[in-house]
């Protein structure tokens, strides 16, 4: 897959991707040519290339296995491949369909996604314009059907409180809109875990809220940050 663009190191804290753990297959027929689109979460180049390799084996009798993928929170890695179609008629329109997909009104932040369009030639030449439309429409139609999730950089923080007051504090934190990430208990203490946006202002506000709700008896301890899937409401 030749390079299309590489941007500086990613810094985004939120972006959109397809749901992990599966793949979507969509088929479009144009003048007896079959265009089979497969979309899948691809968190890195290795998984994106593995997707293409696997589909070459699965659809081994197809004429073309054209591909495009976008990776990283800032969509810093973008690749496409025409796989034998005339230059610029397959991979580029596929990549454009990924990049221009709106995940909310006016928002184009889809990333960590691989798209492969498998073409079975039907005997009729489509011409350059027809191929561009076919590959673009194939990916766009598949994107309409694929489940999306919000990917957010969250910091897992902990609050240690006496066991007797843990339930009340947890309920109050949930009521305040915080995302709880589990808890652990021993004979006298509970450790509540919160998943918080990974920014200084948000962490400071959460620390103040924990202090206020616990009358100063508990403190928020920031832990490691990680990318998490958040359902789109």
Structure in words:
- There is one protein chain.
- It contains five helices and eleven strands; from the N terminus they run ββββαββαβαβαββαβ.
- The longest helix has 19 residues, at 127-145.
- The strands form two sheets. The chain has a six-stranded antiparallel β-sheet with strand order 1-6-5-7-4-3, with helices on both faces. Strands 2, 8, 9, 10 and 11 form a five-stranded antiparallel β-sheet that branches.
- The radius of gyration is 23 Å and the shape is elongated.
- It folds into two domains: 3-146, Impact, N-terminal domain (Ribosomal Protein S5, domain 2); 152-231, 2-Layer Sandwich (Alpha-Beta Plaits), CATH 3.30.70.240.
- The protein is α+β, with helices and mostly antiparallel strands and 233 residues long.
- Series of secondary-structure elements, N-terminal to C-terminal: EEEEHEEHEHEHEEHE
**Overall pLDDT confidence:** 91
Q: What general form does the structure show?
A: elongated
**Domains counted in the coordinates: how many?**
2
* The CATH fourth-level homologous superfamily of the largest domain: Impact, N-terminal domain
Q: Find the count of extended strands (DSSP E, 2+ residues).
A: 11
Q: What fraction strand?
A: 35-45%
H/I helix tally: 5
Examine the secondary-structure arrangement and name the CATH architecture of the largest domain. Answer: 2-Layer Sandwich
Essential attributes:
single chain, 233 residues, Alpha-Beta Plaits, 6-stranded antiparallel β-sheet, disordered N terminus
């Amino acid at each position: 897959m030749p390079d299309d663009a590489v941007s500086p190191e990613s810094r985004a804290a939120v972006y959109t991707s397809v749901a992990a753990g599966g793949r979507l297959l969509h088929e479009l027929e144009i003048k007896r040519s079959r265009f089979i689109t497969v979309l899948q979460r691809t968190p890195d180049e290795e998984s994106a290339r593995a997707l293409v390799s696997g589909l070459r084996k699965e659809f081994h009798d197809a004429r073309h296995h054209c591909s495009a993928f976008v990776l990283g929170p800032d969509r810093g890695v973008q690749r496409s491949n025409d796989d034998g179609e005339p230059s610029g008629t397959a991979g580029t329109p596929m990549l454009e369909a990924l990049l221009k997909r709106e995940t909310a009104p006016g928002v184009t932040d889809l990333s960590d996604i691989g798209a492969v369009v498998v073409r079975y030639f039907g005997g009729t030449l489509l011409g350059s314009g027809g191929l561009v439309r076919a590959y673009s429409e194939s990916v766009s139609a598949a994107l309409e059907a694929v489940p999306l999730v919000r990917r957010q950089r969250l910091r897992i923080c902990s609050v240690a409180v006496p066991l007797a007051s843990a339930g009340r504090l947890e309920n109050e934190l949930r009521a305040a809109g915080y995302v709880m990430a589990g808890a652990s208990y021993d004979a006298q203490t509970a450790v509540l875990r919160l998943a918080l946006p990974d920014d200084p202002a948000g962490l400071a506000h959460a620390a103040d809220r924990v202090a206020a709700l616990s009358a100063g008896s508990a403190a928020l301890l920031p832990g490691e940050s990680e990318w998490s899937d958040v359902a789109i409401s």
